[in-house]
Description:
Helices cover about 45% and strands about 15% of the residues. It contains nine helices and seven strands. Strand 2 (about 30-35), helix 2 (about 40-45) and strand 3 form a beta-alpha-beta unit. The mean pLDDT is about 95. The protein has a seven-stranded parallel beta sheet, with helices on both faces. The protein has one domain (about 1-190, about 220-245): Rossmann fold. The protein is an alpha/beta fold. Bound molecules: nicotinamide-adenine-dinucleotide. Nicotinamide-adenine-dinucleotide binds near residues 15, 116 and 193.
Amino acid sequence: xxxxxVITGGATGIGRAITxxxxxxxxxxxxxxxxxxxxxxxxxxxxxxxxxxxxDVSHADSVAQAFTTMRNHLEEKTKTTQEQxxxxxxxxxxxxTRDGLALRMSEKDWDDVMSVNIKGTFLCCQQALKIxxxxxxxxxxxxxxxxxxxxxxxxTNYAASKAGVIALTKTLAQEYASRNILINAIAPGFISxxxxxxxxxxxxxxxxxxxxxxxxxxxxxxAQLVYFLISGNADYITGQTIQLDGGMS
Length: 249
Ligand SMILES: NC(=O)c1ccc[n+]([C@@H]2O[C@H](COP(=O)([O-])OP(=O)(O)OC[C@H]3O[C@@H](n4cnc5c(N)ncnc54)[C@H](O)[C@@H]3O)[C@@H](O)[C@H]2O)c1
């Protein structure tokens, strides 16, 4: 049986690390990202035998079209290889920030973050669940954030969207437990990405002081936790949000 995993926002950053790690663990990744297919980050996914689907997770039609293409692809593969191809897991990773203090935040910045982070997560779950309810066992993992638990000045929109991802995770886990669909979230703290590299050395030191392990997390740390949750070794965990923050205070 070939196990396919859809990773949204899988062309770059944390999503890219998840895509590559899962590929090396024997899963077949399918990336949904808004980047043009001829963008170099999309193009070089071909080395992972990865199906790349350009879509905007914040638009229902775009998500539905991507999942239809994916379903047809799995059905075709099952027919031609005489091996079953299933949607093993969905990883909701696509997310954006539009930071600003609440008094100055535009309606557009609020709406854009909500549309991608929470509505996009919901739309992808809805499409994946239609396929997953017909399978014996499947998984959904969504990327939340520690700021969705603790809040963070300058990120009302982002923090609220990630708190929404946590609530959506708990609710869907209860709705689909009877179908053996295990649904969890990961709340990373500071993960080393181009974004954290842009912080001044002083800010980086100040942040690390608040982390018990005194370092930022890596994209590999996130990928390994995603793998654990969908590996079959964590099948009594559902509806949870696992903080991956090195012990932040
Ligand atoms: N980087 C961190 O320290 C950190 C911490 C906590 C949580 N997170 C969460 O982890 C996830 C990944 O973060 P990252 O730092 O790798 O981000 P990133 O900006 O590096 O990558 C995001 C990816 O999502 C894609 N994307 C954005 N909007 C999209 C849309 N509407 N439709 C389809 N694809 C879209 C982008 O093209 C990109 O490939 C996000 O959900 C983020 O909120 C990140």
